[in-house]
Amino acid sequence: MGLRRVLLLGEGNFSFSAALCGAQGTHVVATCYQSEEEAAGAAGAARSIRRLRDSGAEVVFSVDCTKLEEHFLPGKREFDRIYFNFPHCGRKAGVGKNRQLLAGFFHSCTEVLAQEGEIHVALCNGQGGTPADRPRREWHNSWQIVAVAAGAGFILSDVHPFKAETIEGYKCTGYRSQDKSFCVEGALNHVFTRSTAPLCLTPLSCKTQVGGQKVSFQVPQVLVDKINRGFLEGNSSHPVRTIKEELSAGLSQAFPLQNTNSSFPLLHQGHPHGVGHSNIFWITLSPGEAPSTEKMSQGLANPVLFSHFGQDTDKNVQEGCSVPKQFYLRPSLLPHAQAIIKKRAFSPGTLQVLSGPVFRKCRITPHSMPVFHEVLVVLAVSRGTENSCIQMLVENIKTTLNSLHQGVSGVKPSISLQEATSFGTELNDYAAFEWQLGEIQHFLCVGTDPEPSGSCVGVIRTAPDEFKSRELVVVSVSLNLDLLAMLLCGISDWRMLWTSDRRFLRQFPEGELRLFKNFSIYPPSYVHDVSFWLPDEEEFDEVAFHTLARRVSGEMVVSIQLKDNFQQPGTGRRSLCYRVTFQSCDRALGCREAAEMQLHFREEIQQHLGVTLR
Questions:
Q1: Model pTM greater than 0.85?
Q2: Which residues lie in coiled coils (predicted)?
């Protein structure tokens, strides 16, 4: 391993550089904006410069921090760490000019920083504008450092106190271009790293099986980066796979268990009865690839054992009617469990465990996800024993989740089984959609709060009445592995589970569950309002509105709130005003990029939802 190259910018008396130059395995390049003659006039500077040169460090003068590529040859630009302590334009420059200085500096760093290098910027208390400042300035009166850095492709990965007293020989200087010290009490060191590149969501075609026939279709743009990620495959170290494997291992101690690892078709045909049209990802097959009605009748267009899912389609098949060639991405694994049960490809008392991603259009919230990994546990038991079997299943799942949560955080979680009737109408989006799929007996909740909002992670069903007349009753437990991973590992935003940044999976070596530490902290947010007139006598599809926001922004919209619902006197026309907040959880998002997304969003809602912008 070679020397670690360290670049220091804006040095005043070079005392900070001199303190670093003796570090083993480090090559220091110390610079300042002044000429050598001007710099040598600062108190103690000449002594520090001699010390640097004697130790083999480089000392460079007249370096403009906004034009670093001009000062270093291509072969000498790969710096592992760049320090810029207390940057300032000089004299009585205001926050605007200092933001411009930082913007130029960060853009220049893109040319000279190593791929996994760090930028350290020390600021006086309050200047940065992050929640770490005590007290925190109003955003408009701060240097807005996270937003400025994001504009150049950097994210804030750490912030900690700048402890000047621990740096031997260090003397802060340069306040207002004078030989005076900045106020370093409460000063903070901000550590920035490179963000992953913006996603380039080019159209993607996907192949799957429908009714025994291979077909291809274009993936909805909002799902392009989430199809076929392989998080549940054997070589994956993703937390959702770890949780699924641990749940299976725990259940296998109480029941004979069969993991069904076959590749289930992504597409279903027809229309899921009871599920809102706007909650489904509808798919158009590539030209000439629609399977025949006869083949579809042999496929998965069947009623689901636990719900009314697909019954209308099956009725058409039974009566010899033509099946409408409508296709959609599977919103549940229930139809695949139905196919196994119909074939009697299971033994009573043996658990069937199915798992895979499912797809649902939904509103934008931190816990509402258009795709997640479902694990479905199915058990056929003798009629009359279903309640005791449900209790056994739940206790086993509780034991596994308790063990996992305590291993990660040392805290025992609250895991509760809630009667479906006790929830009333206050369901989170996940639970509400599950209710559409069919009647639910129990909700499984995990967290510190047993309330349904944000903590429902699973549902329990038994077979419809027509199956209870037989000898067997089928019990199913459906769990949202993504919500479980968020709760167990302390992940606050579902989007982080799908990040392409390698720093996420590095925190879970060989699938070991740990408390997640954000590598992008205090990400900047940008608020934009959009208001429009609704088409006459048409119901506004809010899920479609949210889905457009997801697609246009590449999942950069973190919140959409209705701010005003106005009806014009006389005409009766309705106008809505929404507040849209753009924020990324894992990569840099600058204000200009967010503004461009907002403009694109306005164009798209006008085109696709038929609204009239105000």
A1: yes
A2: none
